[in-house]
Amino acid sequence: MPRVLIVDDHAFIRRGVQSILQSFPEWEFCGEAANGNDAVQLAERLHPDVILMDVTMPGMNGIEATRVIHGKHPEVKVVLLTLHESAEILRNGFRAGASGYLLKADAEEELMKALRIVVADGSYVSPRIDQGAVREVIKEVRSTSRGA
Fold it and tell me: Which of 129, 127, 84, 124 is nearest to 104 (CA)?
């Protein structure tokens, strides 16, 4: 049963994601954090399979937290959760080690799809993001990871 850690500075978003997860008993909610620093600590302590990570938070942002977590625990999948339809944030997130990029506007319909894809070692990007930019970012990240 995949374990999910939810990280967002808004409790309302964390509760909403939890309520969606509750409808899917094959997924386990294992914890929540309100900022990147707490996310790093909880990832260490709780060993989630996947982290749903807000991008914009006070203190350590979601991309920095993803970079730290991915460096210590590359097996943990991170799906960035954001309001931003930005190719640059998408690129920075995938460079940091994220496997997914989910727009908050798509979360209700796409959350479970995104989680299933990344847990199966795939990559997920919200359908509203420009697909040309998505292909470019995925290609770049794959070539960088192969060259490393």
Answer: 84
Tokens encoding 51: 């982290």
CATH for the 3-147 domain, from 3.40.50.2300, 3.10.20.30, 3.40.50.1820, 3.30.230.10: 3.40.50.2300
Query: Distance (Å, rounded) from C-alpha 28 to C-alpha 5?
Result: 9
Residue 67: strand pairing partners = none
Give the tokens for residue 13: 């978003």
Torsion over CA: 40, 41, 42, 43 (sign): positive
Largest CA distance in the chain: 41
Q: Where are the domains of the chain?
A: 3-147
The DSSP secondary-structure symbol of 143 reads H
Q: Is the backbone of residue 41 left (phi > 0), alpha (psi -120 to 50) or beta?
A: alpha
Q: What is the mean pLDDT of the chain?
A: 92
pLDDT, tens only, 53-70: 999 999 999 999 999 999
| H/E segment holding residue 61 | none
